[in-house]
Design goal:
Length: about 220
């Protein structure tokens, strides 16, 4: 009985890792489509969102099966309950990658000069997604904390990109609707960073039994 239970828990982690790969593929594809102005790739990413939705439902069913049949306690219960929360954030990451792809499908903008900030932002956000899932799978609390720290970097990129886009409208008379679309891409990336931060927090909850918004400061700093 215990052997079957351990197999189910391992399967849960394997399924989460696969969902993480699906999210990463979708995000990477959406950003590549933006960079290359590739509407066909954007269309494929947009249409593939159902794969992530389906995997989320499969993992949810597996979690419920474990809870109902195995009645886990302590750390195992935290593992399963954290997984249930995480997959919601992962599904939203998939949705936002699809949203970016949808914008690219209709984007009429060939000037790449001001995409640099957004592309740098995308690299950080994508790394946060990868590392947050890895932190959960490998039970790496320090990696989870590092992901949380990187969220501020993504927020700063968003503020910079937004200001650059507004400047294009004011000083260079660029099409306002197109610029708003590009700002929305940056906003979706900012939200992806938030979801990766949530996943990292759930990794910490799984290991520590607490769900901090920010990890505690060292005692010496608190007393300063």
């Amino acid at each position: 009985m215990r052997e079957q239970y351990n197999i189910q828990l391992k399967n849960l982690c394997d399924e989460i890792a696969q969902l993480g790969r699906f999210c990463d593929d979708a995000l990477a594809g959406a950003i590549k489509a933006l960079h290359d102005n590739d509407t066909e790739l954007a269309r494929r990413i947009y249409k593939s969102d159902y794969i992530i939705d389906q995997k989320e439902r499969e993992i949810e069913n597996l979690c419920l099966t474990i809870i109902l049949h195995q009645q886990p306690i302590a750390s195992d219960l935290r593992l399963v309950s954290s997984a249930l929360k995480m997959i919601t954030d992962m599904e939203r990451i998939g949705d936002q990658a699809s949203d970016i792809a949808e914008i690219v499908m209709n984007l009429d903008y060939n000037e790449k000069t001001y995409f640099k900030t957004i592309e740098e932002m995308a690299i950080v956000a994508r790394g946060m997604v990868q590392d947050s899932v890895e932190a959960f799978i490998n039970q790496d609390i320090e990696l989870a904390r590092d992901v949380i720290d990187r969220d501020e970097q993504v927020d700063n990129y968003f503020a910079t990109a937004r200001d650059q886009m507004i400047k294009l409208i004011i000083e260079h008379d660029h099409n306002a609707a197109t610029i708003v679309d590009i700002i929305m891409v940056a906003k979706y990336l900012e939200r992806i960073g938030d979801h990766a931060t949530n996943i990292a927090n759930w990794a910490i909850f799984h290991l520590m039994g607490e769900h901090p918004e920010k990890h505690p400061q060292p005692q010496a700093q608190m007393q300063a």
